[in-house]
Amino acid sequence: MEIPLGLQKAIKDNRLVVFVGAGLSYELKNSQGKKLGGWVNLVAHIIEELERKGHDVAYLQPVLSKHDPTAALALIESRIEPPNNELSKDEIYRIVRSFYELSDENEYSLHKKVLKLTNRVITTNYDTAFEEVEPRFRGYKAYKGKDHELRELVENDNNGFLIKLHGCSENTGSMILFPSDYKKLYESKERDALHLLTVLRTIILHKTILFLGFKLDEPQINGIFKEIEYIQGTKDQRHFVVARKESTGNPPDCVGSIVNISIEDFINELIRIKETQTSTDPEKRRLEEQLKAASKKIAELEKQPSYQEELAEKTRLLEREAYKYYIKGVEYSLSNEFSLAAEQYEMATELKPDFHEAFNNWGYALRELAETKQGKERDDLYKQALQKYEKAIDIESDAYEAFYNLGNALQELAKTKEGKEADELYKQAFEKYKNAIDIKPDYHGAFNNWGNALQELAETKEGKERDDLYKQALQKYEKATELKPNDHGVLNNWAIALQALASTKEGKEADRLYKQALQKYEKATEIKPDDHGVFYNWGYALQALAETKEGKEADRLYKQALQKYEKATEIKPDDHEVLNNWGIALQALAETKEGKEADELYKQALQKFEKASELKPDDHEVLDNWENVLRALAKTKEGKEADRLFIQALEAYERALERYKKATGAVWISVFDHD
């Protein structure tokens, strides 16, 4: 029997891999006494079992008899997928698993001979014949999804390997059964499939593959042949196929074809070659062993990573663990558990000291914690947050988000300070926002927050300095809106700044600024109609403008303000601040009226303050305003009926006063106590 020289050399050099198809398991029997055969037997069994379970699949039998089994499987799969969903994939897999439960009577003679020839095996078979012959393979095999096992088996292939290319019946989720499964394996870019194919390509490049038990027209084997042709080209014939006698078709030129021969006879001859290549002369045998050992050492040295590569691998593993802590930190941050988040980010940076994203997020968590504290504890947390942001910037000088967050933290800290200390912190915040924008000129969020910081600082100043800061803030909001026209939050902030500047002016200049503010609020509500805060601010601006007017113009503006407060309350009924300002506006309008109209407005104002007090019992400002309305109402009343109405309102106020005392523990001295 003539054996190709390339195959003989592969046996001698110990780089032979046997790739086994269905032919090797054809005569094996399952626990039901049925012969495994090929794919036709499997698909016939699936159809038979589905029919036995009451599914309408009789039409599949003629398909199976006239076409390739994959045609019947495609039709079965169409019944699994939407919109049909008639069959369960799990049900099919259970049928397949039961079909491949092997009988105790099998002898596995061919499988034993393959393992005598080589301990490196790849198979497309689902059965566990090789695991029965070599129990070590039960825990030492790999298939799609078992990335660690794949890498370990191939990198340490002196111990041999068993790769189940199309999965294993013991783990039906791994099985490549339906047409879509084949497409996912051979055409998909998903990680598991790519890893498996990468391992296969490595074997094609560095080993000699002997294909046993395939028909040359099988789609599975032709897919592998295409991989070989793609990787190796057509000239170098290093792989071989022993085709079954009934095969049709031809392999590519790069795969040597051996046909019309018994698989068992062929394996026997290869085993004989392997055994005769081992010399009987002890000295020669020693030299051969030394040669093998030296070759192995060279291969190991070539494969062995350098110190730098070892260091890189260790770094990679540390980085992987760092990302696990980082992800956990993000999850804690999303659930507002900032103390736990900070711990996770700290662990991430210990494992990966250059992890600038983790330092940035650590700073954010500390900043959020600071906002829940007071005094020195708050200040210390803010300072720690600043250090984390600065560390992120030291690592990654272009980390614009870290500059932005550093600006935010400085701004938040500045709000807790006064005088020169606050001024200095605000100025540092401005610099950080500028740094962020220098790196990312279209960073609209940085422009917006820079505007907010300028506006906050302006509120602490007077005269020209105040006006200049407000105008700078307006410029930042304008730029932010140019970059992102549909950000209603920026428009809201822009309107607030215009309104604040307007309140420092008089006459036409004030009117012009108020008008611009009202336009911004209107635009913001068009973009986001359900933001109660914008309606509240809009109402407040209308109310402020109304206070500068008289007569019908004032009436019109007050009524518009009332409409905005009403809208804000419809969206968020439990906002006590809206109700409080609504009450103030009603009182202001009532003071311009007389008689029943005034009474009705005062009554509505009292209702708003009562509701606000119920929502926020410890807000003394609400009680102040409520008291003011009662005083104003008292001045307009005479007679018993008026007294009764006034007493009712006063009793409601006293109930609110008790709630305040209970909530705060404070003693409230009402002006009514002295009347």
Task: Explain how this protein is built.
- The chain is mainly alpha-helical and 675 residues long.
- Among the domains are: 5-29 and 107-276, Rossmann fold (3-Layer(aba) Sandwich); 43-99, no CATH class; 305-373, Alpha Horseshoe (Serine Threonine Protein Phosphatase 5, Tetratricopeptide repeat); 574-675.
- 67% of the residues lie in helices and 5% in strands.
- It is built from 29 helices and seven strands.
- It has helices spanning 5-12, 39-52, 60-66, 69-80, 89-99, 109-117, 129-133, 147-155, 179-187, 191-206, 219-232, 263-276, 282-303, 307-334, 338-351, 356-370, 375-395, 400-414, 419-439, 444-458, 463-483, 488-502, 507-527, 532-546, 551-571, 576-590, 595-615, 620-634, 639-664, and strands at 16-20, 120-123, 141-142, 161-164, 208-214, 239-243, 255-258.
- The protein has a seven-stranded parallel beta sheet with strand order 3-4-2-1-5-6-7.
- Strand 5 (208-214), helix 11 (219-232) and strand 6 (239-243) form a beta-alpha-beta unit.
- Helix 23 packs antiparallel against helix 24 and helix 27 packs antiparallel against helix 28 (620-634).
- The longest helix is centred in the middle third of the chain and has 28 residues, at 307-334.
- The protein starts with a helix and ends in an 11-residue tail after the last helix.
- Mean pLDDT is 83; it is low at 279-288, 290-295, 297-304 and 671-675.
Descriptive terms for the model:
mainly alpha; elongated; Serine Threonine Protein Phosphatase 5, Tetratricopeptide repeat; 29 helices; 675 residues; single chain; Rossmann fold; 5% strand
